[in-house]
Amino acid sequence: MPTGSTSAPAHPVRAHLTTPDGRRLSYLDFGAAGGRPLLALHGHLGEGAEFAGLAGVLSRDGWRVVAPDQRGHGDSDRAVRYDRDGYVGDLRLLLDHVGFGQRPLPVVGHSLGAINGYHLAADRPGTVSALVNIDGPAYLPLVAPAPLSFLLGLPYTAPTREELLAACGPLAPLLESGMRPHRDGWRLGSHPEDMVDSDTRVLGDHWPQWLCTDCPALLLHGTASTVLPTAQAREMASRRPGTTLLELDSDHWVHLRRPEETAAAIRRFLRAGAWGE
């Protein structure tokens, strides 16, 4: 996973909740309890920690960023299914758990996280006051095998970090930041089979959910992205009222490749409205 650097707030709190089906859902809470709430959602192969730099910038304006490790990612447990109902259900539980359930808030999401974010807005009207979509498409072609199928065959665990890195071969730079201790060894940040399942279930048409809400939105697009074509990004902005498009010279991981520009753009967008007041 690419990494970016901006200032991070000191001592984010790692916490978790237990879902009704017994899973651990882990999240990072950046900021004081009295801060204005903001939800930040990573994409496939990511985790909440990738928003530490952005949280540091936004904390200057009093934002309290909560960034979960979505199901099957990071320190959150694996799940049986990775469809929109599952992801959005987890987000509803999290918002209620941290006390955000009755307060409209902005949602920042990258890729899978952006799609889950605007599905949350469509599913729970009034919950989301503003959307920041970082390179999250409204349509993904129905292809087989799914794009993340290149992960299949990788080991999930190994006795040491070095052995796990070696087993990942050329994919090691993509996966090493998510590796963590696991029982008597090390594991990847997410299980390859889970990611392929999740990737398969996110393919298809999300235009209805993208278009059915009217809260202000900022769409950050990487012009070299292989996930969101520039033509689609421009159509997403033109068809949805109140949506601002910002194109940056980047691949799909806009917020990690161009962290300073991304954080500055999001800060300007949030300052332009009374989101979360």
**CATH class division:** Alpha Beta
Please identify which CATH superfamily we are dealing with: Alpha/Beta hydrolase fold, catalytic domain
The shape, in one word, is globular
Specify the biggest β-sheet.
8 strands, mixed
Number of strands: 13
Describe what you observe in this structure.
This protein has one domain: Alpha/Beta hydrolase fold, catalytic domain (Rossmann fold, 3-Layer(aba) Sandwich). About 30% of the residues lie in helices and about 20% in strands. The protein is α/β, with parallel strands linked by helices. The two termini are about 35 Å apart. The model has no long low-confidence stretch (mean pLDDT about 95).
What secondary-structure arrangement, pairings included, does this model have?
Layout: E1 13-18, E2 24-30, E3 36-41, H1 52-59, E4 63-68, H2 84-97, E5 105-110, H3 112-123, E6 128-134, E7 139-140, E8 157-158, H4 161-168, H5 172-175, E9 180-182, E10 185-187, H6 192-202, E11 204-205, H7 207-211, E12 217-222, H8 230-239, E13 243-248, H9 254-257, H10 259-271
Parallel strand pairs: 3-4, 3-5, 5-6, 6-12, 12-13
Antiparallel strand pairs: 1-2, 2-4, 7-11, 8-10, 9-10
Q: Can you tag this structure with a few keywords?
A:
277 residues; alpha/beta; Rossmann fold; 10 helices; 32% helix
Give a quick rundown of the structure.
This protein is 32% helix and 22% strand. It has 277 residues and is α/β, with parallel strands linked by helices.
